Design the sequence.
């Protein structure tokens, strides 16, 4: 090929690509675009939710087709048990299992401190599923730990010393829960069918405490009693079967929700719902003719953070306790003409007497059993027994190497089960004004934050740390 031909071919190729380059720059690919506007594709309207739109109880799954009824009849139906005193009394005294307690089952949970209730061979616990960001009511078989069903709803939260806190309540064939963000859910305890719900933040303008809701539901003679401590409503009574509000107590004293739970008491001959809120302590009538009426309140003792519930120690005296240096206080409630007088008779710092940071003390046959808080001086974190006549000097304490942190404890007949927050279980024989160590056993190999209250029924003790629940055979009959 001659050089002349090569020259013309080269010029032709260059011209061709020059034309392509100019065309590429001049072409507008958006000339045929049309604006995409909502509804242009004729799709049906969506179900988008706002961030705070929680559909309580929206999901359900049955995990087992086995509907056989258990032969077990033991009950631990609510926070602190059927009598609200953290004591179980068997028809026949329980005999401790010889040797080590047998582990019946283990269940992993979301991070938290919620504890279970027990009814007719089933265990109910309000867990938090971190993967799904959901509160989840789980129903388990007491003997095997097999999950029977679960009902849950999505409620995204940030971890703050875990998530879950509360204990369900069972009555009238129903199970009621209060979630970390104040969502109340009522289900059939056998089938898991959803019955009704309440969002306390929306209905009552409740301000949820910094470490989430710690208040456990109370069911009293068919009435669910809650302390939303919202803008206008201090306490409320709800028909547990229908969810209909029966009465409400105006929040004239301006209390806010604490981590404490309502305790039913008979003070001065009157049935009373006693509650420690942020702002003080109060009593609301539980009598049928005046149910929901604010009887009295006292604001001379008002810790900013309170988890333990009030403990009655006589017909007109109540022991109050809180952590973070608040210590303890003695409340006296007396009738005064047609009204009431509530007085803080004494109060003191944690190192000056009986106190507790997280767990509610036990009034066992007139003696008060507690675990002293971390700021309790030289006796910090030990088990201790105090007599109501002297709240400043214990009559007994556990040994210096028997310290339990924020761990829970529970009495079964004449024995006390105390769970160290690191996962070691101690058992004591409760004597007149002392306790004798009977045995101890490592339950969690590396237990972390074992703070959730214990539950007991049918010789089975349920314990937990922040991520694991275990059931132990501890007694025979």
Sequence:
């Amino acid at each position: 090929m001659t050089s002349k031909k090569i020259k013309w071919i080269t010029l032709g190729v260059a011209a061709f690509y020059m034309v392509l380059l100019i065309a590429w720059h001049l072409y507008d690919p958006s000339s045929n675009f049309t604006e995409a506007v909502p509804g242009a594709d004729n799709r049906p309207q969506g179900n988008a939710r706002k961030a705070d739109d929680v559909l309580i109880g929206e999901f359900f799954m049955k995990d087992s087709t086995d509907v056989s009824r258990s032969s077990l009849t033991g009950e631990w139906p609510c926070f602190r048990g059927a009598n609200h005193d953290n004591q179980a009394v068997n028809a026949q005294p329980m005999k401790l299992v010889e040797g080590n307690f047998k582990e019946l089952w283990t269940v992993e949970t979301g991070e938290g401190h919620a504890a279970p209730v027990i009814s007719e061979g089933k265990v109910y616990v309000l867990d938090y599923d971190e993967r799904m960001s959901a509160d989840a009511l789980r129903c388990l078989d007491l003997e095997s730990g097999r999950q029977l069903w679960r009902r849950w709803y999505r409620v995204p939260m940030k971890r703050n010393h875990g998530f879950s806190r509360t204990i369900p309540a069972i009555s009238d064939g129903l199970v009621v829960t209060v979630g970390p963000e104040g969502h109340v859910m009522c289900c059939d305890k056998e089938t898991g069918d959803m019955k009704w719900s309440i969002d306390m933040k929306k209905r009552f303008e409740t301000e949820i405490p910094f470490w989430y809701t710690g208040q456990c539901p109370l069911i009293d003679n068919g009435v669910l009693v809650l302390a939303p401590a919202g803008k206008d409503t201090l306490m409320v009574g709800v028909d547990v079967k229908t969810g209909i509000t029966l009465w409400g107590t105006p929040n004239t004293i301006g209390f806010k929700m604490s981590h404490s739970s309502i305790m039913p008491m008979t003070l001065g001959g009157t049935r009373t719902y006693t509650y420690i809120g942020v702002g003080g302590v109060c009593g609301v009538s539980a009598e049928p003719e005046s149910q929901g009426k604010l009887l009295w309140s006292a604001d001379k003792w008002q810790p900013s953070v309170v988890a333990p519930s009030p403990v009655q120690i006589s017909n007109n005296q109540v022991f109050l306790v809180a952590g973070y240096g608040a210590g303890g206080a003695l409340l006296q409630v007396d009738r005064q003409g047609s009204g009431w007088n509530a007085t803080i008779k004494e109060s003191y710092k944690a190192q000056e007497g009986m106190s507790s940071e997280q767990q509610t003390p036990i009034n066992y046959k007139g003696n008060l059993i507690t675990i002293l808080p971390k700021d309790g001086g030289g006796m910090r974190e030990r088990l201790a027994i105090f007599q109501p006549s002297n709240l400043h000097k214990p009559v007994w304490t556990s040994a210096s190497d028997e310290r339990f942190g924020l761990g829970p404890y529970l009495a079964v007949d004449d024995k006390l089960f105390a769970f160290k927050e690191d996962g070691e279980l101690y058992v004591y024989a409760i004597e007149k004004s002392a306790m004798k160590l009977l045995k101890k056993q490592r339950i969690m190999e590396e237990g972390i934050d074992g703070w959730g209250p214990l539950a007991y029924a049918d010789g089975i003790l349920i314990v937990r740390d922040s991520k694991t629940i275990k059931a132990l055979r501890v007694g025979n009959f």
Remarks:
- Confidence is low (pLDDT under 50) at residues 33-49.
